[in-house]
Structure formats: C-alpha cells, structure tokens
Structure prediction request, 681 residues.
Amino acid sequence: MAENLRIIGDTLPGVDMNAPLLEVEDLRVEFKIRGKRVPAVRGANFSLETGRTLAIVGESGSGKSVTSQAVMGILDSPPGYITGGAVRLHGVDILKQDEDTKRGIRSNHIGMVFQDALSALNPLWSVGFQIGELFRVHRGSSRKDAKKRAGELLDLVGIPDAKNRIGHYPHQFSGGMRQRVMIAMALALEPEILIADEPTTALDVTVQAQIMRLLKEIQEERSMGLILITHDLGVVADVADDVAVMYAGQIMEQASIHDVFKRPANPYTKALLRAIPRVDTLGQELEVIRGLPPNPASLPGGCSFHPRCWAAEEKCSVEEPPWASVAEEHRSRCHFAEEVYRNER
Amino acid sequence: MGRYVIRRLLQGLLTLGIVLFLLHYLMALSVQIRGNPAILFFGGDRTPPPAMLAQVEKLYGLDNACYDRPGDPCLVPFVERLQRYASGDLGTTLNGNRDVGDLLAIYIPNTLRLFIFSTLTLVIVAMLLGTWAARHRGGFIDHTVRGTTILIDSVPVFLVLLAYVYLAAVPLTNWARDIWGADTFMGEVFSPSYDPDHPWTTIIIPGIIVGTVGLATLTRLVRASQLENLGSDFVRTAKAKGLPNMRITVVHVVRNSMIPVVTGVGYIFAFALSGAVLTEGIMNIPGMGRMIFQAVQRQEVNLVIVGLTVTAVVVVIVTLIVDLLYAALDPRIRYE
Prediction:
C-alpha cells in the first residue's frame, strides 16, 4: 500500500497546513470577445474548510461555473482570462504556480465533477481506461494496476458488478451510473477538495437524490471540502453548510445555510427563496423575479441587481453597495443589508 | 461483425459485376464503331486476307456477329469472358501475344509500392500539420499551414514531377553520390527515373510527390474535426484530470477526430488511382496506370478490361477497410 501514501508537499510546494483549505480572494475573470473585455466574475470572495460543504448558488450566467473553472485552472483561454485575485490552497496561491504544478494540483488536490456525464466522458475509451489514466499519468502505475484501481473506485461509488464493467464504454451506462463514473474519476487521487458543477441537473429526481447522498457520504468519509455549484436552492438545502449567492459575477450574500434560509440579508436571496415551490404555499401563484439577468457586457450602474430589485431606491442605481457584515459569518452586498436582515424591508 | 463483412463482400462482388459489364459494353461499342482490333494483328496498315482475319478474330474471341451490330451489348461474349476469368485465364495481349496475368504480376507491385509511399506521406503530413494548426487556431502557424497546403495542392502534380525530374533529380543524385557513393540508398533515392533493379528505393520520391495530392483537403479535414473535439466537454474533463497537453491531444483528440479523416483518406486514395497514370508516365514506372493508358491507345480490349477491373477491386477493398476502421475507432458503431 506504499503507493497510497502521499505527501501533500510533493505536488504543492510551500504548503501551510494551518492555513484554510481553500481561500478565494477578489477573483476576477474577464472574457475578451471581439476585442471587448466582458467581466464574468467581478471579485469573488469565499473560503472553504476541511469537511465542509459550500454551495454556490446563482442563475445561469451569474458566473458560478466560470468561478469554479478559474479555481480549477481549466478556463478556456482565449477567450477567458483571470485578471486579478488569488486562489489559495493551504495558503499557496495556485494562480501563481507554473503549468506543471497547476497540472499536479488538478485531480491531486482538487477533483471536479461536471454536469453532463455523457459529454464529459470520452465516448471512445472505456471507463476503466479513463479512470485508470489518472493513476498512470500522476502515479506512474502500470496498465494492469490502474485497471484494478479503477475497478475498486467503481465499486466504491456503488456501481453494481463493478469488476465486469471496467471495460464498458460511457454509452453503455445509464445517466445516474455515468455520473457515478464521473465521481469515481474525480475521487481517484483522493483530492482534498471536490468541485461539483451542477452534478444532478441532467438527472431525474430520484437519481438526483441518490447522487447527492453519495457525494455527501464520500465527503464525510474522507472529510473533503465540497463545493457544490447549482441553480437550485432546494437541492442544497440539506447537504450544504454554507451558501454563497452569486449574481452578475459578484457574490451577493454569504452565510451558513441556516441563516440564508431563515434570515437572508439581501433582497436577491429573499426573492430567490420566494421562488421555491413549497408545500405551505400550495395553490398560490409562485413568485418570480421579474426581468432578466443583466448582460455582462453592459452592466447597470450602481448595484447590478437594482433594476429587478423590489427594495431599490435612487442610491442603488448610482452607488455600488459595499461587501459588509450583518452578523458574524454573514456578509451581504446591499445598501440596505441591515434592514433586510432585520426583516424591516 | 462477420455477417457485416460477408454482406459487404457480396455488395462488392455485385459492384465488380456491374463494372465488368459496363467495361465490356464500352469495349464492344468501341469495336462496333471504331473497327476491328484484330486488324492490329497484321500491323494495322494493310488489309489482311478475309480468311486470315477470320482466324485471328476467332483466336481473340472477336468472331461473334454482335460486334458488327452497333449498340448490341454482346451478352454471349460477356458470359464467355467471365467464364474465362473465373477459370484463371486472363487472356493475352493483341500486340506481342503476352499473358495478361504475367503482366499484372509485374505492374501491380509497382503501383502498390507507389501507393504505399504516397498514402503514408499524405496521412502523416496531413495529421501532423492539421494537429499543429488546430492547436494554434487563428494564429500565425494556423494561417501558414493552411496557406502552404493550398499552395502545394494548387500546383498540378505532373508539374511538380516534371520540375523534379528535369531540375532537381540530376543535381541531387550527383550530390548524394559524391557523399555516399552510387550503390547506396542515398545514391539511388533521388534517381530521375524508375530503376527495375531498385524497385523500392527509386519509387520513394515519386510516391512522396503523389502524396501531396489532396494534402490541403485532408489537412483541413484533420484541423476542423480536431477543433470540434478540442472544444468538447471531455477535453475539459481531461484538463481537469491534470493530463499533459500532449496526452490530451494524442489520446483524447486525435482518435475522436479520426472518422472524417479515415473517410477522407479512402476517398483521396481512390481519386489518386487516376493520378497514377501521369506519375507512372513521367517517372517511367511500369505500373497499372501506365499499362491501362497504353492499352487504351493500342485498343488492347482485354488488357483495358482486366486493368480497370483490378482498380475497381482496389476501390471496393479500400471502402470496406474504411468501414471496418469506423468500428475499430468508435465503439458506438457496431455492424449487427
């Protein structure tokens, strides 16, 4: 079992085990489209501790997937560029590392599960090959060893008859099983952080619950940090510890899951919560947030949410709201955060 | 898979039957309209005595009355011809009375050698250039590769061959012989014409030159299908797995973009068969292309039919190989 032992410093020089697991500070991403610079992420701040689950929630185009790809270092570039900020893993800024170190960080330290497993797996290679590839490239295992490890992983994520399915191709698996294969692949090298980008969106409801349970179980077993990216607050309600709500490339509110549901301090979060169908509002018309998310190429002045906000005043269209604390471990980006928090608005 | 292959082989046989009949019919028409090739037996200028002509016609199977009726498909001689071919008798030439089977044994290997080198050149160069261009999409390298291949493809292949034979071959041969000596590989490889004593060496350069036909098409095909895969979700997954760029290209992009490329190679291969006539003519290679061309000029009915049938067989086989390669490349394709 010697090859299972891994020293974190081998793949991440300068590591400080007392620093937080992952700290993202003022991360900025821009896309260059036909010579124009379009901001996709405008200063994202969040941190993640070992064994905790952070949910990043937002509408399509809010920048949540781009944030995760920037953290992972797999942003398509061109057109995407990281223009500022820091991503610290165990206190080491991974944006400043050279290509080889960054490559080693991916999958050794941060694993990633994508939304649509059918297109995210290569259709021409067997799942055993695609999982085993990680051991062969990063650990120098032999073909035979890699295959054996792939079988163990498939078994771990609950694929029945795993031994005989190593040689099967992605199209021979059902949607839920394919997502399990993706998870097995992300877990292969025992990363400390797992980023799941809409892991259940392409699945039907019963399978969604199974996959969420699997992710949660494995996270607890290995005390990994889990970042869950989703547009569905309902999905994260019983798995997440903390929530960051994103809108137009900014984090609007960050707090524990309990606080966000009970005492939101941002009008946007409040509007999102009202848009969730609930048993006690059965028969009533569901509330919607009127309007559309802004075009990142022409953001409104002041607070980016003000044209759609029910609490907006004149000040909101002129002045950008500060990123302020309303309580301990509870921050919000709104001029009226305190009032919203106290439910006075 | 086995059933699929058998079905495709039967389809191929049907194709060959149709090709054979069309060739036979064209040749019958040519005899009916242009006149009797048996006269060639007597040198072509004199009018032979009718009795001798009849004897020669009988010898070459031209005595059937259908050859005097323009438009008659001559089915009886067609069936006789098929029976002779089936029993292994490919007939003889009118000029010199040589066995066609023996001629094929000389010509086919030469054309095959030419095609091995040209196909290898085409596939290797197009794959490398296409991959290179795709990796640097929109940049200087991309534009240079696309421009250069179009330039190479725009120059007719016979012009390149003539330029090579008359301008480059002799100085290159002299230069190589000064350094390595006349009897070495390097001393022979640049030879301006085919040398039957060195059938492999002297065919490399013409093979490479023929291989540039279709280079632009195939390079663009490789580039386009790789670009499609480079933007795909599974390449993003491969990046997230921390794989080196080289491995992503070789393992996750090249194989996925091979299907259009394999189709393209098969197509260009069949197309290049006609190009062999020029190449073999200019480089004096006794191959199938030159043989068929001369056979048409001399009204060698039988030789033309056999020669063109052989090329049809090659096209049918190449198409079958392309289809089987699909299944080998993509596990989602199964022929059951």
Q: What stands out?
A: The two ends of chain A are 59 Å apart (CA to CA). Chain A has 13 helices and twelve strands. The mean pLDDT of chain A is 84.
